[in-house]
Amino acid sequence: MTASSIVFNRRLEGKVAIITGGASGIGEATARLFAQHGTRMVVIADIQDQLGHQVASSIGMDKCNYVHCDVADEDQVKNLVESTVQKHGQLDIMFSNAGIASVSDQTVLELDFSEFDRVFAINARGMALCVKHAARVMVEGRVRGSIVCTGSVTASHGWKNRTDYCMSKHAVLGLVRAASVQLGVHGIRVNCVSPNGLATPGTSRLLGKSMEDVEKVAETYARLKGVALNVKHVADAVLFLAGNDFVSGHDLLVDGSCVAP
């Protein structure tokens, strides 16, 4: 165990965390990492029920449980947060990670607003709902909590396609910047982790490609060579943001020095 691991173990010991989109990909990797670093309970929320229950069981039901939640539905988000506090006494960390990519390569000239609305319902509205309800219970419980949102490098650059997705991640960054200012007076930190393109089960299904093929494409997005971005790299960044007592309003790029299109 490294010195940094010992520090993080102390900082997350006894904490209660919610991770949306926790049944696979970045969310699953973060749930496992949080459990390793001392959280008392990690509640993973997703719409992939079978996978969610499997992940919770593999981590250990004494350390992790699963709740079905569609983040686009405010009642479900509110219930997720309030039930967590009722069962476990508090909420210290919200990792608002659930999101989707656009199914098309639309440019602004081709925008299909039915698809646009679907992407924004989850990536922007859903993210705002998670921040809103997590912050409310943290304020009420006088918890100096940590909220981390999953953004994207597309919030730092324009993009040649997937306009709706790019716009939705800019909205996430705006949410983080506003919330960090507004919630700082309560001692609540709000940050964003913004990965480059990487291979996850979700992106593999979306693109209709194998994980290996997606990894090859993702490697072209970064100037840093010799290592491919994976979910553990992102989870490590989330752990830092969750465990640091002073960083707030920050967009932590996990991009290997992104090559903008």
Automatic annotation (TrEMBL):
PROSITE patterns: ADH_SHORT (PS00061). InterPro entries: NAD(P)-bd_dom_sf (IPR036291), Sc_DH/Rdtase_CS (IPR020904), SDR_fam (IPR002347). Signal peptide: none annotated. SUPFAM superfamilies: NAD(P)-binding Rossmann-fold domains (SSF51735). Belongs to the short-chain dehydrogenases/reductases (SDR) family. PANTHER family: SHORT-CHAIN DEHYDROGENASE REDUCTASE (PTHR42820), SHORT-CHAIN DEHYDROGENASE REDUCTASE 3B-LIKE (PTHR42820:SF21). This is (-)-isopiperitenol/(-)-carveol dehydrogenase, mitochondrial. It comes from Morella rubra.
